[in-house]
Amino acid sequence: MARSTQADALTSAARRPRAAASPWLTNPTGQLWHTLTSVRLALILILLIALATLAGTLIDQVPGSVAADPAAYSRWLDGAHARYGAFTTLMERLQLFQSFSSIWFRGLVALLVANIAVCTVNRWRGIRAAVFSPRVRMTAAYFERARLRAAFSVSADAAVAATAVRQGLRRAGYRSLAQDGESVALYADRFRFSRLGTFLTHLSILLLLVGAVMGGIWGWKDNQFIIPQGDTRTLPLARDISVKLEQFQEQWYVEGPPKDFASDIVIYDGGREVKRGTVRVNSPLTYHGITFNQSFYGQVAVVEVRDAAGKVLFNDGVPLAWTSTQGKRPVGFFDLPGKSLKGYVVGPEPGTYDSTVPLGTVRLELYDAATSQLAGIATLPRDKDVQSQGLTFRLLRESQFTGLKVVKDPGVNLVWIASGLMVLGLVMVFWFPHRRLWVLCGPHPGGGSEVRLAAGAQRDLGLERDFEQVTAKVRRALARCQQLPKGEGPHV
Questions:
Q1: CA nearest 334: which of 367, 377, 378?
Q2: How far apart are the first and last CA of the chain?
């Protein structure tokens, strides 16, 4: 009979319907919201973004000006193929050469922004209650089990004892809230608004990510914007803006290394001069959100090319801004308008006698633009005509160029604001932690009343010391009211 009753009970329990799930969680929007509150998801996204950042650091990234020019981008990929081999095509399709502006990187950042925003909103209710509507009365069991606790026996009633306790708490820098009843319950805390520092740090992370996305979508960077001295060059990624290098200055220490190098530049917007100044290392020039940073410099070979009829096809400075694969000779290149030829100008290897490219000359290599086959080689002395491929080449003079790092980042102001908010939030959370304690003043079985203090186990290394100091001030406040019997002390 007992077994039958037990079986019936088990059957009844099995048939009992489960508690209905929250309608919000069964809704697709609610399920998405619940997923975005996951801390595990945040950690996974942060790990993926960290790996993507590592990949973007280790893998060569195509400059913005090169990506905007199909011909230059094709040449850049040819160079990348020499390093990455058969993986180059796959890496290009995965946008690994443009990691920080790729669709998948922006998607990861956007998902992390949504995750942080949802987690912040989800935590608001609990933090708001702790700051503005804290629980005043705790159960008696809490005062018996709390990690930090103290107890006093006093001869006065609970109301008088509670008044003295509040005075002690005030002297310790704590505000207090009271709830009357058979026993008087007190809640005390200090630095309560520091809990809001959590939202400042969350907001700072959001702004950092939004700033990064803005920079990736609407910003750009050109690490190799080169201007020969005396020339004016148009920004490849901002066609209305052009820059003229009026003069390049360099100073050297006696021992040999460069002491300072600077570029005197003029900025034109739509052909109209709008700004001029000197750009040095760590001393950039900014115009309409575009920042010009001094990055590098080098030699320029000014070359003139004429056809058989004497018409000038090319007359410009060729910056020798790259290095040859064999040796350390500086190399520059130029295209000939109307001719399927590409010219490479090679300077002598610095610091040594170069028999291939003697000092005072440059080496000219002509390649077929369509097939990349070598079409001719010549040595150009200064101010002498040299014939090759039916054209006349002449090295007019040598000059210098400046290499500028040009950056437009519309999210940079957000990054600065975010940095300030993060510092403020961290200071609030770690330097001014929200400390809370509860007090219960109730009747003592032997007469008078008992005062009990307790503080929860918070991740605060200074909480225990602070609790001891508060307890001492409360004890003195009770003693001043002559409510604490002689020899009676706290029971910790």
A1: 367
A2: 55
Read off the amino acid at residue 40: R
Whether the CB-CB separation of 478 and 150 falls below 8 Å is answered with no
Per-residue confidence band for 15, with pLDDT thresholds at 50, 70 and 90: very low
- Check residue 250 and give its pLDDT: 83
58: amino acid identity, one letter: L
The reported pLDDT for the residue numbered 14 is 41
pLDDT of residue 458: 65
The type of residue at 376 is G
Higher-scoring residue by pLDDT: 26, 480: 480
Question: C-alpha dihedral over 47, 49, 55, 60, to 10 degrees?
Answer: -170
- Architecture (CATH level 2) of domain 134-191+433-480: 2-Layer Sandwich (3.30)
